[in-house]
Amino acid sequence: MVGGSPDDLVIRSDAVGGITHGYLVRVEYGYICLQQRDIWIPSSPTTHPRLRDWLPIHPVISGGSLCLGLHVLLLVPVLLDPGAVLTLLRPEIPRQMIDGKQVSSNVTGAKADDDDVDLATTSNEADIIKILGYQPELKRNRSMFTLLFQSLAIAAIPYGFGGPLISAIYGGGQLPMFLGWIIVLIFDECIALSLGELASRYPTSAGPYYWSFQLGPPQFRTLLSFVTGWTWLIGNWTITLSVNFGFASLIAACIAMYHPDFVIEAWQLLLIFYGICLLTFLICAFGNRVLPEVDTACAVFTAITILVTLICLSAKAEVGRNSVGDTLGYFDNTLSGWGDFSFFIGILPGAYTFSAIGMISSMAEECADPALKLPKAMALAVPVGGVAGLFFIIPICATLPALEYIVGAPVGQALPYIFAAVMGSPGGGLALTVLILIVTLFCSISITVAASRCTWAFARDKAIPLSQLFSQVSIKHGVPIWALVLTTIVQMLLGLINLGSSSAFLAFVSVGVISLAVSYAIPIVISMWHRRMEVNAAPWTLGGKIGWVVNAMAVLWIAFETCLFCLPQVLPVDEITMNYAVVVFVGFMALSAVWYIVYARKAYKGPPASDGLKVER
């Protein structure tokens, strides 16, 4: 790999982002690569005692001509200090550009060694995370497309819409299913665009609580950040729980297709749920290197599932085909007890599908060029997923059986029941449901990864108990393993609610959507309070007038859906049909308040203060 004389060497090294070539000249602390524009650090670990945890993750600096790779280090007898290499070419570091615009940054109170990387401007990912106040710890192995695919995997259209489909049945049928989907797409895209601006200005895995801290007034920003962080964390945990519990419910519904007299006990459903949690944990803990490919496979398989469902339902239609008017506009307001308001109960599946769109921000520290690629992925996820969803929803609406027969579907899972009826046999229904189960498994993996990164980021800032443990990143596996453990344990404990309520799945869905929505709203409102000055300077922004309209629509929608997801699905309400979302949410927030009073108000100082990334326009 390295050859030539000591003073004129050639390096060819596998590196982060590609392969580098150049001629090396010996200097005091290392070698200068004369024909090199950027610095590349090989992904293979080094055994150097001072650098093994620091060097292989990201480049030392950006835009200079210094090249310190694994093979170069083998030629250097002594490297006194990692920071010393920066003194070699610091005056020669050029200004960096993003889309042709100069990018500036400033950080105060950072946890990283900012004296070592005192860059006026940068676009390098290692420097970006240091500017935001952290040290790089995770491998950046995701692109815009893999982030987009992960967003679509989290949305998991066939499961996201099909899992809580019973709400649309109680909500009146085809009209809220079709028209409600369109309405949800418009407003959720406003949320995605609003969050994209914030993620561009502050591209860190800390997400909403970091944004709230940077944007909030100095006297309140620590508390605002803490509240935002806990709602964000609760939302990540419970929305992940809803996916895994919905997965278990679908499996139980498949059993019921072949054994209609079989009534699954709550403890049996709980055991299936626990098995799914453990399976997902193992995949996320030990398969990190292939997870971007898993997200890509999920996007492809989701498209195949939608296409197969479209063809099969349209071809079979054993219970008949509805007219165009009924397919797009049938509405029965008698099933839920809510009257005409049932329409809004019926849009819950669509709102649930895209409720986790902001969770992708937790992957910011695993993405190259996150200031641009992350917001683009968030902005594309809703329209791409929305159009794909229509090809799944319309054939269901066109072949939907009578609503009164669906409301009694086993385990509250309408989709397998509909598939079996439309296909004319349990076998046909099972075949289509298996496709949904595979999509749900992909979704479970992707959303668990995102939730674990959220947990890790919040622990990194000392906001949760045992932060030192849960903020650790496994060097061997490249994942925050203990944060993943905590995420799994919390899900398994909350799953016990199912032993006392048949509407547990609705509660998990509702509290996840509510918590995520509140965590989105806080930084958006603060940004609007400051007249959008910070996001207008982000590398990716909506601009003035459009930004105001989009932000306002996002906040209004969040306020409405938060109230909507607190409501019970049917009236009258009893202890069985009650929506326990408010109880779970308030309980978690009460625990966080106790934790803040007892310890966190002294230990939690908020994330590092930073101006983030700004573009001089």
Alpha plus pi helix count: 24
Number of strands: 7
Measure the end-to-end span: 44 Å
CATH second-level architecture of the largest domain: Up-down Bundle
Please tell me the overall pLDDT. Answer: 80
Percent in helix: 55-70%
Strand residues, percent: 5-15%
The chain-level structural class is alpha+beta
Which regions have little confidence, pLDDT < 50, spanning 5+ residues? 1-123
Main β-sheet, in a few words? Answer: 4 strands, antiparallel
Shape: globular
CATH fold assignment of the largest domain: Amino acid/polyamine transporter I
Q: Please identify which CATH superfamily of the largest domain we are dealing with.
A: Amino acid/polyamine transporter I
Give the domain tally.
2
